Amino acid sequence: MTGLCRAGAALVPGIAGMGLSAGSVGSEPRIRFSSDTASSQLESAQLTLDEGPCRDATATRRPVLAADLTVGSWRQRWPRFTPAALAAGVRAVFALPLHAGGVRHDGAVDLYRRAPGPLNSADQLAAATLTAATAELLTLERHGLDLSGGFPHGWHGTRTGTAAGVDFAVMPKPVPHAVDGVLLACWFGPAMLGPVRGQVRVIAAGQGLHGNDVHRLVLAVHEAVTNVVQHGGGNGQLLLWRRDGRLWCEISDHGPGLAATGPAGEHATTDGDHSGGGGLQVIRQACTSLDIATDATGTRLLLSYRLGA
Questions:
Q1: Count of CB atoms within 10 A of residue 143's CB?
Q2: pLDDT tens across 43-57, in order?
């Protein structure tokens, strides 16, 4: 995480520095990184004054783009933070909420510059990419997963060009049977449906599932990734790992959300509950548990399958 944040200033050349405040959904974001003295002052001011762009981006789940803090509207919006930022030599600040499709955390990536003016299109794209990568790393943290030790020979896999972009499967080093760890990380699109299904089948068998149990897990994962391709924007992310006697799989996308799940942002959890309809019913019936988080920015499905059931 620190390495990615340190690279942030270079990835977004139009900024002078960046900071990161983050926490799990519903918790108080805490300061995780600041690139220099000014960004540290910005992050601390928002924490102590309880106002500022990071707080607003977290609350609204939308970017906050203050291209010139001397404009009166920003002083009215943040009467204590704005003078503190200007005193630190900051004239423009941009806060991007920690979202990556259906994956989200409370907090924001805060970028600042010493001269007024908006971010250009290249900097906006770089900032959005940096924020999405940060959200994905925070998700690994949330699950207590560490990919850094799983790739002693670097990342490798299958690249397949598609109309929507590039698919990339990442296979960690093999995890021994009955040992917790990451089994598969995959960015997928239409061309990866077959390879993902085949890889999940191999992993399930290697982790001790047999016969119908393998079929049920493969069916659930395939139904989820197919739904992403058909209805969730065409591309998504998959993470599969073993922990506490279960195989866990998280599938997230950047689509319009699942209207049938409930109000925007609703979290629905089932453990042995086989109610529902359509593709979600298939997944519920096949798995031990299913958790759904969805809103207009994307959907996250977290499913599990009990080993030795």
A1: 14
A2: 999 999 999 999 999
pTM score of the predicted model: 0.65
> Which residue in 246, 257, 259, 189 sits closest to 217, CA to CA?
246
Q: What percent of the chain has pLDDT over 70?
A: 81
- pLDDT by residue (tens digit) across 128-155? 878 877 887 887 787 777 665 444 433 3
